Amino acid sequence: MTKSALSLAAAALFMAAASGSAQEFPSKTMRIVASEAGGGGDFIARLVAQGLTSAFGQQVVVENRGGGVIAGDLVAKSPPDGYTLLLYGNTLWLLPLMRKQVPYDPHRDFVPVTLAGRAVNVLVVHPSLPVKSVKDLIALARARPGELNFSTAAPGTINHLAGELFNSMAKVNIVRISYRGSPSALTAVMSGEVQLMFAAAAPVRPHIQAGRVRPLGVTTAKRLATYPDVPTIAESGLPGFEAVSMHGIFAPAKTPDAIVTRLNQEIVRLLQRPESRDRFAGIGAEPIGSTPEQLTAEIKAEIARMGKVIREAGIQER
Question: Directed axis angle between helix 3-24 and helix 257-271, to 10°?
């Protein structure tokens, strides 16, 4: 047999093995590594896990791992066999812009599966703060530079970067106070420990209704159906302002293309169901279900846009 024929035979065997592997996948329990329990990422991870369990006939569990470094490092070092997935947001690819020592490379160590969804935040303030609009807040912040605080979860989260983007665009100095998670950061606003926060739309809704916090604007380009009376920040004094949470699903690098394709198809099918859209709306989010290439493009655009904010604000974490 010639060398060329041997090469073709080897390639055919490889393709057959890859096809067989994809058809047999999965044959055991899978896991989706996600952020802290109770957040938007955790909700989406559990919805996807439930759907994949039904689709595959294999148990899919969610493993909460808190900060993006821990979760990212765990999945980056996992076997590239499709049995360990990562569902994470903006922090995953933005943290390396803010911290010198990150144990993973967001481009090299993961293969994108799909953009699962986008979630929005609401700018809320403690009721005691004498402001009723975004313009009022900007005026107060300019009159009291460095005296107002905004609470955030981990560095690089969208509620952190939304605050820095606000500072940059409004030309104000509202100081960030970091908490261990979004629930703690919101509690700090409700108690009056800090004055404001860019809070996830769904968890903050009951507190808005109860009068514990006052909404000033949403971070999307258009108003939300769930907050029809709350203007966008862009229309309230900062044209062009937009900051949303993106929740992407990733597999370890070198996961076979056939397995990534199968995962993408099943997850997108799940996200396109009407009941999924309804459940996402309950947390102030929108299901997407993109191709891997579209997720890659979204991440590149986010890095370019928020990277500028990070550099201008001089955000550097240890």
Answer: 30
- Three-state secondary structure readout of 294-309: HHHHHHHHHHHHHHHH
For the chain, what's the residue count?
318
Global pTM?
0.80
DSSP assignment string, 200-237:
EHHHHHHHHHTTSSEEEEESSSS--TTSTTSPBTGGGT
Q: What are phi and psi of 269, to 5 degrees?
A: -60, -40
Kindly report the backbone phi and psi dihedral angles of residue 41, in degrees, each rounded to the nearest multiple of 5, phi listed first. Answer: -65, -40
Residue 248, helix vs strand vs coil:
strand
Query: 296, 244, 292, 294: which is closest to 40 by C-alpha?
Result: 244
* CA 151 – CA 64 distance, rounded (Å): 22
CA 154, distance to chain mean position in Å, is 12
Tokens of 194: 């800090």
- The string of pLDDT tens digits covering residues 26-58 is 999 999 999 888 778 899 999 999 999 999 999
For every residue of 58-117, DSSP letters joined together read S-EEEEE--SHHHHHHHHHTS-SSSSEEEEE-THHHHGGGTBS--SS-TTTSEEEEEEEE
